[in-house]
Amino acid sequence: MVDVENVKGATWNSDEKHQDNEWQNQNLSAAKRLSLFLLTWGVELRGIHPVTVEDKKETQFNKIFFIWLSANTNILSFSLGTLGPVTFGLGLRDSCLVILFFNLLFAIPPAYFSTWGPKLGLRQLCTTRYTFGYYGVVVPSMLSVFGLIGFAVLNSIVGGQALASAGNVSWTAGIVVVSVISLFISFCGLKVLSWFERVVWIPVVLVFIIAACVSGKHFADAPAALPATASQVLNSGATIAGSTITWATISSDYTTYFHPGVSSWRIFWYSYAGLILPTVALQCLGAAAAITAPVVPAWDAEYAGGNVGGLIDAMLEPVGKFGKVLMVFVSLSVTGNNVPTIYSFGMSLQTFIPPLVVVPRYVFSVVATAVIIPLSIAGQHKLYSALSNFLSIMGYWTGPWAAAVLVEHLYFRKGDFALYDLQSWNVPSKLPLGAAALTASALSFALAIPSMDQVWYEGPIARTTGDIGIELAMAVTALLYIPLRHLEKRWKGV
User: Fold this and answer.
1) Which long-range contacts (CB under 8 A, 24 or more apart) does 3-10 make?
2) Is the pLDDT confidence value at 48 over 60?
3) What phi, psi does 81 have (nearest 5°)?
4) Whole-angstrom distance, CA of residue 231 vs CA of residue 436
5) Region 222-226 average pLDDT
6) Taking a C-beta distance cutoff of 8 angstroms, is the pair 333, 74 a contact?
7) Mean predicted confidence (pLDDT) in 232-259
8) pLDDT tens, 33-46?
9) How many helices (H) and strands (E) does the chain have?
10) Does the keyword Membrane apply (predicted)?
C-alpha cells in the first residue's frame, strides 16, 4: 500500500497543498475517485511533477541496475546484433567489435543522466527545460514520444514473432499478448515496475545460455568474411549508437525517488553495467546466429523473411518440445523493455503537451498501448528495414539533445545541481528561452546531413567516411551552444 498523503496532489495540480481539501471533499468526480482507489492499491499517479525531498525514500539503489538489465535482456537486443552481418555485411569479429566499442561509448550519457534523478527529483525531459526552455523542450519531447512508440512497436513485433514460434498462434496474436502484459505492469507504476524488472531477466538469460550451449557448435561453420571497410563499420555503429544513446532521454525517470544522499558514481556504475552487460552479450550472440544461419538449413528456413523468433526457435530445436516452453520466455522478454518504455511515454507526452499534466500518469499507458498494437500489426513483416532506419534516425536527434544538455550542466552550471531553481520547473519566464539549444541543434544538421548514410539518403561526406552523422551532430552542437547560450543569457538573463 502507498501513503496517500505523500502523493495525493501530485497528479492533479503542481501545488500539492492546494489540493488537500479537494481530495478530502466527499463530492469527488468519478475520475478522481478512481485515481484515489488505484492509489490506495499502490498505483503511481505522479507524472512529471517534481518528487519532493520528503518523498525520496528509496535506498535500494541497485534497482536501477536491474531496470537497465531487464530492459536490454531481450530478443530485441539479439535482433540488433543481427543487423551487423545481415544489413551491413560485417563478419563476426567486426560485428562484435562494433557492438562492444559503440556501446561502451554511447552508454555513457544514459548512465550519467541516471544520476540526476536523486539530485533534482525531475523526470529526464523536465530537466531539459533548464536547457531548451519551457516551450523549446516541446521539440525533443515530441521526438521522444515518437521514439518511445517506435521502440515499443519493434519490441512487440519481435515478441509476437517469438510467441508465434512457441505455439500455434499468429504473429498478430503474439503482438497483442506481449502488449497487454506490458500495459498492466506500466499501468501500476514505478514500484511494480522495479519489482518486475528485478526478476524478468532471469529466465531470459537462461534461455539464451541454453540456446548458445546446444547450438554453439554451428558457429564454427560460419563462412569467413571479407575485411570490413570503414563505411561498413561506421554505418553499423550508427545503428548501435542510435539504439543505446536513446535511453538518455528517459534515464532519470527511474531514479527520482532515490534518496538524494546516494553517491552519483554508485548510480552511474549500476546504470552503466546494467546497460552494457546484456546489450553487448546478446547483440554478439545475435550476430553469431545470423552469420551462421545460411549454413544451417533448419536455421535458414526459420529465419526466412527476418523472423528472428523463428531463428531462436531453430537454435533451441535440440531440446525438443521443451524448446517451445523456452520460446514463451523469449517472447515475454520484450516486456522488460516495453514496460519502462511505455511508462516514460507518459512523462514525455506531459512535457510535450503541458496541459496534460492534470491527467493521471496511468492513463498514458493505456493510450500508448492503443497506439502500439495497430502499428505493430501493420509493420510486422517489415522488421529489418524498420529497425535499421528507425534506430539510426533516433540517434541523429538524441545526440545533439544530449550534447546541449551536458554543456549547459557541466559548463554553465559547473556541474552543480544547486544552480537549478526547482521552484521554476514549470515557470516559463524563469527558465532559459531555449533559442540557443534549438539553434545549435538545428545548425548541427548542416554538417550531420552530408555525413549520413541511410537507405533513403547518402551524403557526400558519408560516401567517403561512412555514417558519422551522430558524432558530428554532437560535436557541432556542443561547440555552437556555448557562444549562443552566452548571448541568450545576456539578453534574457536566465
Assistant:
1) 4/36, 4/39, 4/40, 6/54, 6/55, 7/39, 7/44, 7/45, 7/46, 7/55, 8/36, 8/39, 10/45, 10/46, 10/47, 10/49
2) yes
3) -65, -30
4) 33
5) 81
6) yes
7) 94
8) 777 777 777 788 88
9) 25, 2
10) yes
Buried b or exposed e, range 307-323, using 16+ CB within 10 angstroms: bbbbbbbbbbeebeeeb
DSSP, residue by residue, 425-456: TT-GGGS---HHHHHHHHHHHHHHGGG-EETT
Rounded CA-CA distance 126/120 in Å is: 10
Instruction: Please provide residue 57's backbone torsions phi and psi, each rounded to the nearest 5 degrees.
Output: -105, -10
Helices (H), 353-468: 361-379, 383-407, 435-448, 460-465
Question: CA 493, CA 430: separation in Å to the nearest integer?
Answer: 9
Q: Look at residue 24 and tell me whether its pLDDT is greater than 70.
A: no
Cell of 247: 535511453
Res 5: pLDDT: 35
Instruction: Write b or e for each residue in 375-384: b if 16 or more Cβ atoms lie within 10 A of its Cβ, otherwise e.
Output: bbbebbeebe
Residues 6 or more apart from 212 whose CB is under 8 A from it? Answer: 285
Q: How far is CA 35 from CA 51, 68, 141, in A?
A: 18, 29, 26
Q: Which long-range contacts (CB under 8 A, 24 or more apart) does 135-139 make?
A: 135/428, 135/434, 136/432, 136/433, 136/434, 136/435, 136/437, 136/438, 137/351, 137/434, 138/351, 138/352, 139/438
Phi, psi of 125 (to 5 degrees): -75, -20
Asked if 147 and 394 count as a contact pair (C-beta separation under 8 A), the reply is: yes
Other Cβ atoms within 10 Å of 333 Cβ, number = 30
* Type and span of the H or E element at 347: helix 335-352
pLDDT tens for each residue of 322-356: 998 999 999 889 999 999 999 999 999 999 999 99
